[in-house]
């Protein structure tokens, strides 16, 4: 329950299971699996759902294969019991442990926090960071931070769930609380 959206860096030794309503196409020469129709990939409590998933792999020198990229398209939802991110399309780079989700409205949520954007949200697993681009908004306990770009840092609480503890906003910044409003070119909350 305690993990975040760490599909790349978390539980690397566990397999990724892929399911789809319309089937899975294996293009052996191209080293790709294409799952279509309510496709789902899962590893140790982290789930990726979309209309189409493309899993890219390469052969290991020691034998077997290594998944290095997962693309998702159409109604993308990536979630655990504690966090979620939704959008229209996504690319997960397993080597860099970076997830980029794009769409007209991309939403990242934890139990108490949300970050939205109208272009993309990047989820940096190893850096424990979310970057939201274009009309970005972060909300926490009645406080709102807006900007063209937001960088939210999060940490794991004792119960293992994530919480945002710092938001840095760039360009057209607006910070709103119950009693105050602040406008700036750059802000840290």
Q: Helicity, in percent?
A: under 10%
Mean pLDDT comes to 89
| Main beta sheet | 6 strands, antiparallel, barrel
Tally of separate helices: 0
Question: Which range does the strand content fall in?
Answer: over 45%
Biggest sheet: strands side by side, in what order?
6-7-10-11-9-8
Query: What letter string, H or E per element, gives the SSE order?
Result: EEEEEEEEEEEEEE
Class by alpha and beta content: mainly beta
Radius of gyration based on Cα positions: 18 Å
Distance between the termini: 28 Å
Give the CA-based shape.
Answer: elongated
How would you portray this structure in words?
The chain is mainly β and 189 residues long. 0% of the residues lie in helices and 67% in strands. The protein has no helices and 14 strands. It has strands at residues 17-19, 24-27, 32-43, 46-59, 65-79, 84-93, 98-102, 106-109, 113-117, 120-124, 129-140, 143-156, 162-176, 181-188. It has a six-stranded antiparallel beta barrel with strand order 6-7-10-11-9-8. Strand 10 and strand 11 form a beta hairpin. The radius of gyration is 18 Å and the shape is elongated. It starts with 16 loop residues before the first strand and ends with a strand. The mean pLDDT is 89.
Question: What keywords describe this structure?
Answer:
189 residues; elongated; mainly beta; 67% strand; 14 strands; 6-stranded antiparallel beta barrel; single chain
Helix and strand arrangement:
Layout: E1 17-19, E2 24-27, E3 32-43, E4 46-59, E5 65-79, E6 84-93, E7 98-102, E8 106-109, E9 113-117, E10 120-124, E11 129-140, E12 143-156, E13 162-176, E14 181-188
Antiparallel strand pairs: 1-3, 2-3, 3-4, 4-5, 5-6, 6-7, 6-8, 7-10, 8-9, 9-11, 10-11, 11-12, 12-13, 13-14
């Amino acid at each position: 329950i305690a993990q975040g959206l760490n599909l790349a860096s978390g539980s690397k030794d566990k397999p990724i299971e892929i399911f789809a309503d319309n089937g899975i196409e294996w293009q052996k020469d191209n080293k790709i699996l294409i799952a279509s129709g309510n496709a789902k990939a899962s590893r140790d409590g982290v789930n990726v759902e979309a209309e189409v998933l493309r899993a890219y792999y390469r052969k290991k020198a020691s034998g077997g294969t290594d998944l290095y990229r997962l693309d998702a398209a159409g109604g993308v939802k990536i979630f655990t019991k504690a966090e979620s991110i939704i959008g229209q399309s996504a690319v997960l780079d397993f080597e860099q442990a970076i997830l980029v989700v794009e769409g007209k409205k991309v939403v990242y949520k934890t139990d108490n926090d949300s970050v939205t954007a109208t272009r993309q949200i990047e989820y940096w697993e190893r850096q424990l960071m979310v970057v939201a681009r274009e009309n970005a908004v972060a909300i926490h306990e009645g406080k709102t931070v807006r900007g063209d770009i937001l960088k939210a840092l999060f940490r794991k609480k004792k119960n293992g769930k994530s919480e945002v503890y710092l938001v840095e906003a760039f360009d057209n910044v607006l910070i709103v609380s119950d009693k105050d409003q602040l406008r700036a070119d750059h802000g840290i909350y």
